[in-house]
Structure formats: C-alpha cells, structure tokens
Write a structure and sequence with these properties.
The complex is a heterodimer.
Chain A lengths: L4 H7 L2 H5 L5 H30 L11 H23 L1
Helix pairs in contact in A: 3-4
Chain B lengths: L2 H4 L8 H8 L10 H11 L1 H6 L1 H5 L4 H14 L6 H8 L11 H20 L5 H29 L5 H34 L22 H24 L5 H25 L7 H33 L9 H26 L5
The chains are: A mainly alpha, B mainly alpha.
Chain lengths: ~90, ~350
C-alpha cells in the first residue's frame, strides 16, 4: 500500500470508519444509534397527538387538521420502519 | 470459446507467444493477469487445467515457481475455495470499505424527495427528481463496476461466497414476488366484487378494453420465446460456444420487441390511467411489469458485453445466472398478468 499523508488521514478518518463501513458490527452500532434517535422522534409525535387530543377543541395544531394527519402518518412510519425495524 | 485455439497451430507452440503478449517486461512479475486470463480462457477447458504444467515447463524453474504461485493465488478463473483460503486463511470475502452504500442512500433519498415534490407540483421538483435519478444511476454503475473488479479480476467470489450471493438474489426476487402479489391483490380486490360505482361488473360499465388474443397474446409468445433464447445463451456459455452471441441477440431483440408492443398498446389503448379503478390497476401492474422488463433487458445487455469481454467461465457466471433468473421471474409475472388482467378481466 502506498503511504502518504492524505492516505493515512483517510485510513484513520471517522468518515471511513462510520460512513464507508462494511463491518457488520459497526453497521449494527449505527442501526442502534439511529433506532434510538427515531424512537425519540416517534415518541415526540405520539406526545403531540395526545396533547392535541387531551382536551376538546383545538389544542396544539391550531386547527391545522392536515398537519395532524401528517403527524399521525409520520408517527406510524417512524415507529415501524425507523425504530422497530432498526432495533429488532 | 475454445474454438480459436483448438485448430491450427499446435498448443505447445502457442505458449511463448501468450506469455510474451501478456507481459510488458521480460520478468513475469509484471504479467497482466487480465490478458493472461483472457488467453488462458481462449485455450479452452481441457487445456486450461490439464496442460497447465506443460504450459510453463520450458521456462527456468525460478520463473515457473513465481508464475505458479501467482497463478494459483491470484487467477480469478482458477480460484477455488482452497486457493483463496491459502491466500488469507479463510474463503470468505471481507469487503473493503466502500463509499457507494452511503452515496447510493443519499441518491435514492434525493430521488424519493424529487418524485414526491414533482408529483405535488413543487417548484424544482422535476429538477430534484432528475438529480436523484442521475446520481442513483451513476452510483449503481460505479458500485457494480467495483463488484466486477472484486469478482472477475480479484477472484473474491469463491464457491462459498457464490452461495451467499445466490441466496441474496433469491431473496431479492422473493421481495419482488411480494411486491407483485400486492399489485395483484389490488386488482382482485376491485374486480372480484366490483363496487356499485362501476356498475357492479368487471370490466366497469362504459369501458372498451383490449382484446387479450391480439397483441397481449403475441406478447406472451414473445416473452416465452425469449425464455427459450436465454436458455440457449446459458447452454452455450456452459459449453463454451460462440453461439451464445445468437442467444443474447435474440433475447434482446425479443425483449425490445415486447417493450415496443407494450408501448403501442399504451398509446392506442381506449382507456387511460385516470379512467377509474380499471385504468389504475391496469396501468399500475403492466407499467411496473414493463419497467421490470426494461431493467431485465439492461441486465442481459450488460451480461452480453461481459460475455464478449470473456468475464464468464463454464462454471462461474453468476451475473448471467442472475440475469436469467430475473428474466424468468419477469416472464412468469407476465403470464399471471395475461391470465388474470387481460384474459380473466375481459370475461364479462
């Protein structure tokens, strides 16, 4: 292998380890991190939905029912494909 | 493809020329393995293994040992589980770090956002779509170029690696089957118990539909024929005859003929995508099938090119095998489309 400053920097760089990885253990770690992050976002959306429904009338979304539907759908997709599928 | 060397000048007079042509310098360390393999490949199966020793015998022993070592270790054509095992202690392919997975992810995400933005008529949605498409196709081309380098030129696809790849491609086709299953589900959901809005009949009231025994039946025959010709190509690769070129050519002509016929059907169809549930299910299912035919055609064309570059051997031609699997899968999907949507769907 040719040794140069740039190649040494590349070989030891974070990008090579984590973005260009073909190591299943490293990829698994990335899945765990991403799954936890998605779980937090999905839970946040669930909290938004419950806050909207906690009292009669408009609460959180200011009468924007389209946004409410979008949050419901996003909650489902994030929980299934970005949280459950990544972590289990 | 052993025909070139099996007649004419005797084998033993050829060997110096081959070595000379393959090495730019006098010492054989600089042997160009790509051309060397090419030449060895042209020698044909019976010379390749059995007369391998005779091939190098007349050179001095040192060179012979060096070449033998490199030949058995690095020659992708002769690579076996045992030889790769000797090289790095196991016969698995540890893929080196690659930028293409993350690049492909970014490209497909851009494509997805572009499609949604375009369909919702956002400003520059089409531009995003185009950007995503171009970058995705570029990533695919470069990634698969690397796969060819790893398999054909570096010999990483040992028997055990091939087993994994076969399983992977079978699972990919299984996922495609599930996709088409859902498409057929949508069709039968709407057609088995037609709703009151379409007159409680299938095909819906007021629609003129296609006669299945005209162009669709011809399409069925064309695809079945292409299944035969791709099998011809396969057998010719296995038996190493140049007739494989004919098999490839016929398959691609039939594939393009099918796509053209479908194109004319689309243009002259008496209904549209927006003509209710009939148009939706018809164009969604046949459209996705047509896209798969296009992908399969590209796959076979790539295999044809690779065949003429001598990438395929008698026993190791995974790329072609996968193209054939994919083509047969597309063929079977068409049979189901023809029987259920064109034929059964036209019986009133």
């Amino acid at each position: 292998m040719r040794l140069s400053i740039s190649s040494i920097i590349f070989e030891t760089s974070v990008a090579r380890r984590w973005l260009y990885s073909t190591n299943h253990k490293d990829i698994g770690t990335l899945y765990i991190i991403f799954g936890i992050f998605s779980a937090i976002i999905g839970t946040l959306f669930s909290v938004f939905i419950r806050m909207e429904l906690s009292f009669p009338g408009n609460q959180l979304f200011n009468g924007n029912y389209h946004l409410y539907n979008v949050v419901i759908t996003a909650h489902a997709l994030i929980m299934i494909f970005f949280f459950l599928l990544c972590l289990f | 493809m052993g025909y070139r060397y099996q007649k004419g000048i005797p084998f033993h007079k050829k060997r110096f020329r081959i070595i000379k042509r393959c090495s730019k310098k006098k010492n054989y360390e600089s042997l160009d393995w790509r051309w060397f393999n090419h030449e060895i490949f042209l020698l044909g199966r019976k010379f390749r293994i059995a007369k391998f020793h005779k091939f190098f015998k007349t050179d001095n022993q040192q060179d012979f040992n060096l070449i033998l070592l490199n030949f058995t270790r690095l020659n992708p054509i002769l690579n076996t589980r045992a030889q790769i095992n000797e090289l790095h202690g196991h016969s698995f392919h540890l893929v080196t770090p690659s930028p293409w997975p993350i690049f492909t992810s970014i490209a497909s995400f851009t494509l997805l956002v572009g499609v949604v933005a375009y369909m919702h008529r956002y400003e520059d949605g089409g531009l995003t779509l185009l950007l995503g498409l171009i970058s995705l196709i570029s990533c695919m081309a470069i990634w698969w170029r690397d796969v060819i380098r790893e398999s054909t030129w570096q010999g990483h696809h040992t028997v055990i690696v091939q087993r994994g790849l076969r399983l992977g491609f079978a699972l990919f086709i299984l996922s495609e089957i599930m996709f088409f299953f859902s498409v057929f589900w949508a069709f039968f959901h709407s057609s088995l118990a037609p709703s009151i809005e379409i007159g409680s009949v299938w095909p819906p009231v007021g629609l003129t539909i296609l006669n299945p025994w005209e162009v669709p039946f011809l399409n069925t025959l064309v695809l079945l024929m292409s299944g035969v010709t791709i099998t011809l190509a396969h057998h010719c690769i296995v038996n190493q005859t140049k007739l494989a070129n004919l098999g490839f050519l016929l398959t691609i002509i039939l594939a393009i003929f099918f796509t053209a016929l479908q194109g004319f059907e689309y243009i002259y169809a008496p209904f549209e995508f927006s003509d209710g549930i009939y148009g939706s299910t018809f164009f969604f299912s046949t459209g996705f099938h047509g896209f798969h035919v296009f992908v399969g055609t590209c796959f076979i064309i790539v295999c044809w090119i690779r065949f003429n570059l001598k990438h395929f051997t008698k026993t190791h031609h995974l790329g072609f095998e996968f193209a054939a699997w994919y083509w047969h899968f597309v063929d079977v999907v068409w049979l189901f489309l023809f029987v259920s949507i064109y034929w059964w769907g036209s019986l009133s």
